[in-house]
Structure formats: C-alpha cells, structure tokens
Write a structure and sequence with these properties.
The protein is an alpha/beta fold. The chain contains 14 helices and six strands.
C-alpha cells in the first residue's frame, strides 16, 4: 500500500512539475487569472480548468491587497466606465493612438474623445509594432505615463518593435507587408525548446502560481498576514507600503527612496534633462513614421497626492512637464484639488479608481476639443 501511495505521489509530482515547465500553459493561466476580475462577461471555460487554475483573489480585491493579504484592505474593485464608439457622430478624419501603461490597460476608449473618430491603445509593457498608420487619416499620438515610469523610460527598453532608420528613410513604414519581417518568429530548434523547459528560470514562481495562487488559500494567507503584522509587528512584503494614516496601501517603489520610481528620491536637474531628452527622442521617432503631433500626459503616483508630506516630494511630474517640449495635457493640479474632496485612487490597489479614470478622460477630452474646435458630446 505504501508503494502504491508513493508511486501516486511521484506521478502527481511529475505532472505538476511538467505543467510548471510548460511556459505557454502558465502564461495562459496568468492571463485568465487577470482577465477574470476585469471581464464584464465571463468567458466560457471548462469548469475543471477554471476551478483548479483560474480562481484567485490576487487582483480581484486590489493588486496591493493581493500582495499583503491584510483583510482590512480587502475590497472588490469597482468596474470602470466604458467609452464605446459613438454612432452617428460626424467623421473627423482623425485617429488617436495612445501608448500607455497599466493605468489605461483593459479600458474601452473608442469613443472617449470627441475630436477623434477612434482610439487605438498600445501597451508599452508588452510586445507590439512596428506601427503602420492609415495614411488616409490624420494620426495623433498621446504618450501616457504613470509618474513612477518616467525615470526608467526609454523607447529602446519598451516592448515596442520600432522601424529601423533605413526603413524610415525609404518610407517602408507605410506598408504593412514590410512590418512582417520584424514580427516573424525565428525558428526554435528541438534542443532549444528542451533547454527552455528544463532550465526554466521562472519554475519556482510557476509552481507557486499553480499551487497557491487560488482563492481557497485566501483565509490562510489572511490569517498569516494578520498574525505577522498585528502580533509580530513584521513589516509588509517588500512590494507594499502603508500610508502614514494607515488608511491606504502604496507600491513600495513609489515610497522607498532607494528606488528610482520613488516620489521622494532626489532628482537633479540633470535627471530631469535625461528624462525629457528621452521623451523628445521618442517624439521625433513617432513624427518620423507619420504622426502629426505627439502629446504627453502623466498620472501622479498615488503617494504624490495622498501622502506627499511623509518625506520631501521630488515634484518629478511637474518638473518634467515644465521642461519637456511635448504638448502636455497636465492633470496634476486638477487631481490635487479634487483628491481631498473626492478620492481618485483605490485604497488597496496601485491604480486610480473609476472616478480618477473618468476625470482624466474629461480633462483630456476638453483639451482636445479646445485645440481642434470640436463641440463636446453630452456623454462626457
């Protein structure tokens, strides 16, 4: 009997290990876990797969709660407003591209801005491109950043695939067929595939994702977190910080002065010049491939508005906006005025809440309608 049990345990262990080595399957799990909490319509999935691999509280109740599991901060995230395409609206012959980050990911923005017929969103955190514009339209670009992402930004370090200088000179960027050479997958040999499986550097994280990132473990994780925090006085996980009034959570990288993303890390004038030079370089590239104009919009770190007295705020956002040559759609002052009256950021998540998102949409929409002389729709 012991031999049978031992063999069964060995077989199950091998199956789990083999599954954790399958990075394609792991990536599917990651995607389904994330989409599960933001999809208004749940996708049809096999019940065994959904129940076994997908159910998680990691994002459902706030990504910062999902890192520390302190029950007082557990609260389901509210859905964001969708801005679908407006039917019957006169054509403007203008398309707005937005290259942004997690603040605008998974949002519906097609009809958000009255001065444009459509919005194309591209997430710089993941591979995309090279961009091929519709030359029959006037194409504009809005570069959106969270304040914490400004110091490390460089066009070369994003997930975007860019056109080479020679291709820009020869105007190959105008033809989609020329983009295929950049996106074509290079063949991987059998031995390379085996090596990628056996020497998977993410194996430990994959096992943790499969075995423990499930809502069934949430009560245990909450109990452990409460014991460590309230009885042992242990600090939060390294990824999380708490506000001075103990009422909200922050990404620790926006607080810790040893981190470049911190709102309290000293930034010299030279640091600001480097950031603005990189933004200007990106603008030059995008205009070279056909964008008529490139705009900038920066979203403040939550701590920059909600707890900026805890240390000396470096005012990175305002300093970059003052020195960049890009047309700037600034939201800092209006957010600063609104935040004390109406909370714009989640208490348990690293991002804005629906009120903050809607305020940003309205500010950007008004800025564009003023520039292009378009009458605002009542929907905004």
């Amino acid at each position: 009997m012991r031999k049978i049990v031992g063999i069964l345990i060995l077989l199950v262990s091998l199956v789990i290990l083999g599954t954790a080595m399958n990075q394609g399957f792991i990536n599917k799990i990651k995607t389904d876990k994330y989409i599960d909490h933001i999809s208004s319509v749940k996708k049809q999935r096999p019940s065994w797969y959904y129940n076994l691999f997908v159910q998680s509280d990691r994002w459902h109740d706030g990504d910062l709660y999902g890192l520390c599991y302190l029950h007082p901060f557990k609260q389901e995230l509210a859905p964001f407003k969708s801005y679908p395409t407006i039917t019957g609206k006169p054509d403007t012959n203008r398309i707005l591209y937005i290259i942004g980050d997690s603040y605008l990911a998974d949002k519906t923005l097609n009809g958000a801005f009255d001065a444009f017929d459509n919005v194309v969103y591209l997430d710089r955190r993941f591979p995309f491109g090279p961009i091929v514009l519709d030359t029959t339209k006037q194409n504009y670009l809005l570069m959106e950043f969270a304040e914490r992402n400004l110091p490390g930004y460089s066009l070369k370090k994003t997930g975007e695939i860019t056109w080479q200088v020679n291709d820009i000179h020869d105007k190959k960027y105008q033809d989609k067929s020329n983009a295929q050479q950049y996106t074509a997958m290079k063949p991987v040999s059998f031995f390379e595939r085996i090596g990628n499986i056996i020497f998977n550097k993410d194996l430990s994280r994959n096992l943790e994702l499969m075995l423990f990132d499930h809502k069934a473990y949430t009560p245990v994780k909450e109990a452990k977190a409460s014991f460590n925090y309230n009885l042992l006085g242990q600090m939060f996980p390294k990824e999380v910080a708490i506000s001075t009034d103990q009422q909200r959570l922050f990404l620790n990288i926006t607080v810790d002065t040893s981190n470049a993303e911190s709102s309290f890390k000293f930034k010299s004038n030279q640091d600001i010049r480097i950031i603005t030079a990189r933004l200007d370089s990106a603008r030059d590239y995008y205009q070279a491939i056909g964008f008529k104009k490139v705009y900038l919009s920066v979203i403040p770190n939550t701590v920059s508005l909600c707890d900026n007295k805890r240390m000396t705020y470096n005012h990175l956002l305002q300093r970059v906006e003052q020195h960049t040559d890009l047309p700037d759609i600034s939201i800092f002052n209006q957010f600063s005025t609104t935040q004390p009256k109406h909370n714009l950021f989640y208490y348990n998540d690293a991002h804005w809440n629906p009120h903050g998102f809607d305020l940003w949409v309205n500010i950007v929409n008004h800025s564009f309608t003023d520039e292009f002389g378009v009458t605002n729709n009542e929907s905004h």
